[in-house]
Amino acid sequence: MVEFPVALRGAIGHAYILEGGLPDRLDIGRAFAKRLNCQGLADAATGQLNACDECLSCRVFESGNHPDIFFVSGTKATGIGVDDVRDQIVSKMTTQPFKYKYKIFIVDKAQTLTPAAQNALLKTIEEPAPYGVFLFLAEHVQTLLPTLLSRCVLVKLGETVNIPDAEAQALAEEVASTIAGMDILETMGLYRRFEPYKESRESVANLLDMIYLAYAKRITHAAAARENIQKIWYDSIAAIQHTKQILAQNGNFQLAIEIMLLKLSGVKEI
Ligand SMILES: [Zn+2]
Q1: What distance in angstroms lies between residue 210's CA and the mean position of ligand 1's atoms?
Q2: What are the residue ranges spanned by the domains of the chain?
Q3: 82 near 114, Cβ under 8 Å?
Q4: 165-265: which CATH number, 1.20.1070, 1.20.120, 2.40.128, 1.20.1550?
Q5: Distance 59 CA to ligand 1 centre (A)
Q6: How far is the CA of 100 from the centre of ligand 1 (A)?
Q7: Which one of 8, 82, 136, 195 has the minimum C-beta count within 10 Å?
Q8: CB atoms within 10 A of CB 229
């Protein structure tokens, strides 16, 4: 079982760069390619995360003979050149997949793609065939052209999510000052801002503390100014504390955060 980075879980893009060391980038790249063509998953984009390992596509992939998943490699010592790209990618991309949903090109050591080879790829990436997916696996991206980088989803592997305090602070303030009175759709939309915190228990606990403090501050200010203390501030603090507990016990992240946001917005019933 492979744990996919967040960027590989949602809707499917047509070109990715997985930046990281071995074996991670290859393991994740292979598992992602297998999942995209797996016939045992109801919806590879949103459903079960790993391929079924049982369907025909999964089995031929494991046998190393998948007709629609290609491993591209350089034929010269200098790296992956323009001829390699033309022979192994561009010419193959013009035809439909042989049998499966996607035609997937896995390019390991993508950092060795020569500038000419990268340029030869641009048009294919820019005007993607609906069935084409590129997975560039790279040790680093310093040798990749900005024009290539800008057309791909860059996924940094093995990076511990450590979100700066200032960023969490800004989100906490924004939530506390805007959420009251939001409707359900807006509130659910706000969940997306929390997703980057999913990977790190520490970061999310930190963020929740900051939201808590944002409400606590409102209460103390109002009290000092002899203004009305709103009941929803207290309710929000209780909801935040409750959510912290759930997450500390490994509860479902999305569910816990969404319920918390609904309580903070004051939406009465779902
Ligand atoms: Zn399968």
Answers
A1: 43
A2: 6-156, 165-265
A3: yes
A4: 1.20.120
A5: 7
A6: 11
A7: 195
A8: 14
Chosen CATH of 6-156 out of 3.90.1640.10, 3.40.50.720, 1.20.59.10, 3.40.50.300: 3.40.50.300
Q: How far is the CA of 89 from the centre of ligand 1 (A)?
A: 24
Same fold, 6-156 and 165-265: no
pLDDT tens, position by position, 59-93: 999 999 999 999 999 998 889 999 999 999 999 99
In angstroms, what is the span from residue 151 Cα to ligand 1's centroid? Answer: 29
What is the rounded distance in angstroms from the CA atom of residue 203 to the CA atom of residue 210?
Answer: 11
Separation of CA 61 and ligand 1 centre (Å): 9
CA of 244 to the centre of ligand 1 (A): 37
Ligand 1 centroid to Cα of residue 134, in Å, is 20
Q: Is residue 196 reached through a cis peptide bond, with omega within 30 degrees of 0 on the bond before it? A: no
C-alpha 264/C-alpha 178 separation (Å) is 10
Weakest mean pLDDT among 28-37, 46-55, 133-142: 46-55
Query: Are the CB atoms for 239 and 260 separated by under 8 Å?
Result: yes
pTM given for the model: 0.61
